[in-house]
């Protein structure tokens, strides 16, 4: 590492805009975490079974997953600040509808609407960083967004529990209204105005409506398959088949589109392609910790519910503490190398989680989390900085949406696939498995997670190597000409 000149300061409007982006990320993260803790209360209050009440969370996640790339493209076409502002307004309105919903069905519909608004928050916050801070501070800004996302994950359960106890389940949704409106005010004050929107005829040509529709249906089929209440059954495999067919149709549509939603050439960019794959893999591993930890901590270690929640908050709290410092490190060192280092830390952490709890119990588990979680934050800051710094300005929205999509697909896949690995390793029904069976499940599942991270390291290194060769070939052609 060499000494570098001081980075240029962020302007006062830029600071307001960056706080607005961070608050947008926090609000979208709270939209997931704060609702989870309300599910038992909702099941009783609205007289619905547990399998049904999960749709309060699933409707939100499905809407985000289906819409995130299309919303990013819409931001590129209409103006990213304009679309983010609209998303925040929609999120606030839908949150109010959730709090006022008189029935379970209307609550689920309002949550889906809330998810559409959250898609804009998740897709466009990363895309607007380059318009908010100097390029030399991009890594720190990305780290701040990662920090606020982690704070939302950590804060949601405790905040939700307090709100339910004090004011009932409706309060967990109503509290999101002022958060979204505050972010909207900061965005409007701090970010430069969006350019005039594209004329309607050009907009219709540029949005690639056929590609957007095919991708949305494909993602919906995949997400529904992965969230089947009893695992992959005949219907689930049928939905996976439809998703596979949808991918084929989508690629064919994009090849023929005059202005494709996702340019096929972009997917051949080795840095972007490897970054998206690794983003999916790390989200899969992070979801593994959320799936496995409650059972291990309660069944094997015998912790009560309050202590389980406290231990599980260690990862998000650590993420919140390390996000900005690691982002600053990314600004000073090659982002690609830092991404590989983050993957290496995650592989080490997953390995420790597979080995140490058998010897040291809770301290062993926490030791693995202490290594894995900063690795996740380092990779996120470095990967987002590397990709968003290289993408053309007119593609930042859709590229940010693709990063968000890869993360969401990793979370959905991690819950389904790694949950199945855990159940199989534990001998079947985890809820009734004994302490030794759950401990065995933890070892095998995190060994699998470590293997995924090693695969991610290979993918990232191959991406760097291929990008270097492509750059050398381009320079050679330029020299000859």
UniProtKB/TrEMBL annotation:
Pfam families: MFS_1. One of its GO terms (molecular function) is transmembrane transporter activity. Residues 17-468 form the Major facilitator superfamily (MFS) profile domain. The chain crosses the membrane at residues 55-71, 83-102, 108-129, 141-163, 169-187, 207-225, 231-253, 274-297, 303-324, 336-356, 362-379, 405-426, 446-467. Its main location: membrane. GO terms for cellular component: plasma membrane. SUPFAM superfamilies: MFS general substrate transporter. It is a multi-pass membrane protein. It is found in: Cell membrane. InterPro entries: MFS, MFS_dom, MFS_trans_sf. Keywords: Cell membrane, Membrane, Transmembrane, Transmembrane helix, Transport. This is Major facilitator superfamily MFS_1. It comes from Tistrella mobilis (strain KA081020-065).
């Amino acid at each position: 590492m060499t000494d570098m000149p001081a980075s240029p300061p962020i302007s006062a409007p830029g600071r307001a805009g960056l706080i607005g982006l961070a608050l947008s990320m926090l609000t979208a993260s709270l939209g997931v975490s704060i609702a989870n803790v309300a599910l038992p209360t909702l099941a009783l209050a609205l007289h619905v079974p547990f399998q049904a009440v999960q749709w309060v969370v699933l409707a939100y996640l499905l809407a985000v997953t289906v819409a995130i790339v299309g919303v990013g493209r819409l931001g590129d076409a209409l103006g990213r600040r304009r679309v983010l502002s609209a998303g925040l307004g929609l999120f606030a309105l839908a949150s109010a509808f959730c709090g006022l919903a008189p029935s379970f069905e209307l609550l689920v519909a309002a949550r889906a609407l809330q998810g559409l608004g959250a898609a804009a928050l998740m897709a466009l916050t990363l895309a607007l960083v380059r318009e908010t801070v100097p390029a030399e501070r991009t890594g720190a800004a990305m780290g701040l967004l990662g920090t606020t996302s982690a704070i939302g994950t950590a804060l949601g359960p405790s905040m939700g529990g307090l709100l339910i106890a004090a004011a009932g389940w409706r309060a967990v949704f109503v509290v999101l209204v002022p958060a979204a409106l505050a972010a909207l005010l900061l965005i409007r004050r701090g970010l430069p105005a969006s350019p005039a929107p594209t004329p309607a005829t050009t907009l219709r040509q540029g949005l690639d409506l056929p590609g957007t529709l095919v991708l949305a249906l494909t993602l919906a089929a995949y997400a529904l398959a992965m969230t089947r209440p009893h695992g992959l059954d005949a219907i689930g495999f049928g939905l996976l088949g439809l998703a596979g067919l949808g991918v084929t149709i989508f690629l064919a549509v994009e090849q023929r589109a005059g202005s494709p939603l996702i340019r096929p050439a972009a997917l051949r960019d080795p840095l972007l392609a490897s970054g998206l794959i690794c983003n999916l893999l790390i989200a899969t591993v992070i979801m593994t910790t959320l799936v496995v930890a409650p059972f291990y901590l309660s069944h094997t270690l015998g912790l009560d519910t309050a202590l389980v929640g406290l231990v599980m908050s260690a990862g998000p709290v650590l993420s919140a503490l390390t996000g900005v410092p690691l982002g600053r490190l990314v600004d000073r060192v090659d982002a690609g190398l830092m991404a590989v280092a983050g993957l290496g830390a995650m592989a080490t952490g997953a390995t420790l989680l597979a080995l140490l709890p058998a010897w040291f119990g809770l301290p062993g588990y926490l030791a693995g989390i202490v290594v894995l979680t900063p690795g996740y934050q380092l990779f996120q800051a470095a990967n987002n900085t590397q990709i968003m710094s290289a993408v053309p300005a007119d593609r930042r929205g859709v590229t940010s949406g693709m990063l968000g999509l890869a993360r969401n697909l990793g979370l959905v896949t991690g819950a389904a696939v790694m949950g199945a690995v855990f159940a199989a390793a534990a001998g079947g029904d985890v809820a009734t498995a004994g302490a030794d069976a759950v401990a065995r499940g933890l070892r095998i599942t995190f060994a699998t997670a470590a293997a995924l991270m090693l695969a991610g390291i290979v993918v990232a290194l191959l991406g760097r190597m291929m990008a270097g060769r492509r750059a050398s070939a381009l320079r050679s052609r330029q020299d000859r000409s």
